Amino acid sequence: MKPSSSPLLEPADLALDASGQPASPRYGDVYASRAGALGQARAVYLGGCGLLDTPARWAGRQQFTLLETGFGLGVNFLATWAAWRADPQRCERLHYVSLELHPVRAADLTAHAPAELQPFAAELAAQWPPAVRGLHRIELDAGRVHLLLAFGDATDLAPRLRLAADALYLDGFSPARNPEMWTPELFRALARLTRPGARAASYTVAHAVQKGMSQAGFDLDLQPGWGGKRQRLQATFNPRWKRTRHTLPEPWPAATPRHAVVIGAGIAGAACAQALARNGWTVEVLDAAAQAASGGSAMPAGLAHLQPSADDNLLSRLTRAGMAALRRALPPDAASLARFQPATLTAANAAEARRMQHWQHKVNLPPELAQGAEHGWQVDSAVLANQTVCAAWLDAPCITLRCNATAARLQRDGSAWSVLDAAGQTLARAPQIVLATAHQTPELLAASGLIPGPEWLPLQTLRGQAQALPARFWPALQHLRQPWMGSGYVLRLPEAAAGRLQQTDPPNPQTARDNDWLLIGATFEPAEQPLTSEQAWAHNRAGLQALTTTAPLPDHAGALRHFAGIRAYAPDRLPYCGPLPDLRPLLAAPQRAAGKQLHELPRLPGIALCAGLGSRGLTLAALLAETLVAGLEGTPLPIETDLADALDPARIPLKRLRHPPLPGHAV
Ligand SMILES: Cc1cc2nc3c(=O)[nH]c(=O)nc-3n(C[C@H](O)[C@H](O)[C@H](O)COP(=O)(O)OP(=O)(O)OC[C@H]3O[C@@H](n4cnc5c(N)ncnc54)[C@H](O)[C@@H]3O)c2cc1C
């Protein structure tokens, strides 16, 4: 289902009714029982789903996932989080997913939270996202509680979630006031996300709710009501049919160690390693180079940024989610390695200028994410010190980095993968491999016999060059306040990156004391016909002409530092993120395979890709890593399934099976 094109949602119209209860004039209903929101949360929802039993239904488990319709003021969530925290037998990680069309404001959470839940509400309010359509992940309680807010119309969003719910809270305004929240269609969509045996609870026993739930496969059990209500609904999911098309994500097997080998220590590999480590994995990172961030990520810095579009297209949604994931992934004291600030985005050419004119009337985002300005657009961005960010992500007790280790082949031995070098020696072994090997990925897979040839997961390359220059050598740009992007880009290096440039080998007396540097980029060159560094500098300078026509000082050449790297792109310019398809059975029956959907394709166990990040590695690496790890863990996916499908490595082989290239044509 195509989401609406306007990402900005109308926030909740919260008001107090005559009795001082928080209410919604839009729906003409109160947010919770007049007898008390906390009492209702406990009696109806936690109690109804067996979370106040001893032991509670989450006891002793690795993870437990709750799905809720109607977040409202969040009291059900806060009460669940508090009960989880108080339970010594709680599951290790609590995942709570909630659908909400009209989000309240952060201040409303604390203003209306019951006194004993205030500390929880304050922690939540500090991370509360803007009222923008889509999924917003919030990590709380030192990362042990994950709240996934699904902002938008529940009927549109529920089919685009991927999760396996262990409990279901059906809340929201009453069926009489808000019938859209209680339709048979929505109940069916929720049932597709629910594990057999899961409990569901609701304050309402309206006939339509009972009928819809029953038809969706729930056994109903009406219990004495709470807060003046005669009855409340308790139910158990007990479908009479076998799931065929919509299988549920499986958790990582309890008996298999959470140990992974990540191949590639660029921004993609480092992001995957830190995301795995944050989820309790041990990780061995291998890289062919002598140090991390030596490939495409070897630039001193780069720009992560949101990409607006008139129709809030896939890239806009991905980059928005990417920026949010980046904020989550960076350590709290990251100011020296990452500077979050708006960037100026201007048109690179006439076609883009025409496109951007439409944005004035179409882009509908909060100003802190994107807004029109006198010269172009101001967009949410961050300047990252690539190498220092990679180093920070790899610097964790459960991550081991091994450089000068080139993987030549992967081999499945029993339930684990072995990574072999060119001499056939085992470099590492693990039940899970993550390939973050950029443009070398297709060759490595083909050499391992995992795809018939590199053309089945193609990655094209484009070389790029950028230059760093102490700001004092370009007076017109010396006081540049924020990053600028157009037909080129210029940004001021974060402290950590500037510090690295001062130290050169051999030392350069001209720049040894410079700690204020600009980065100017970047070229896009065929890798087989590289530009000289002089040509690249001329190109990059010319790219700034819309910003300044004044030249740098004549003696700047000796202070310039040149950087070059290779970017890797899939044919559709989107990364490969997710499990590798098992092509053998598909190739054995190609016509049958061509009729399948992406989620029906078989996957090779224990091998996933995070590669082909093109020119958006900094914007997307953290999001791809979170998505990849959620897939391995079987926890709620932080992006909608249409976005995940667009990143699925199986999309290109499937396309090839559906439209085989004509003889003599490569892809
Ligand atoms: C000039 C230039 C400017 C750029 N500017 C920006 C920008 O401003 N913003 C942005 O978002 N992006 C930018 N990019 C793109 C960005 O740098 C890439 O998207 C990103 O670096 C890709 O990261 P990666 O980890 O996938 O690949 P890489 O950084 O290339 O990492 C791959 C790693 O895998 C290792 N490897 C490969 N094969 C093997 C093997 N067989 N065994 C062991 N190790 C192996 C390599 O040694 C390498 O370290 C720029 C790129 C260039 C070239």
Automatic annotation (TrEMBL):
One of its GO terms (molecular function) is oxidoreductase activity, acting on the CH-NH group of donors. It comes from the Bacteria. Residues 116-236 form the MnmC-like methyltransferase domain. SUPFAM superfamilies: FAD/NAD(P)-binding domain. This is tRNA 5-methylaminomethyl-2-thiouridine biosynthesis bifunctional protein MnmC. PANTHER family: SARCOSINE DEHYDROGENASE-RELATED, TRNA 5-METHYLAMINOMETHYL-2-THIOURIDINE BIOSYNTHESIS BIFUNCTIONAL PROTEIN MNMC. It holds the Pfam family Methyltransf_30. It catalyses: 5-aminomethyl-2-thiouridine(34) in tRNA + S-adenosyl-L-methionine = 5-methylaminomethyl-2-thiouridine(34) in tRNA + S-adenosyl-L-homocysteine + H(+). Residues 260-629 form the FAD dependent oxidoreductase domain. Its cofactor is FAD. It comes from Thiomonas bhubaneswarensis.
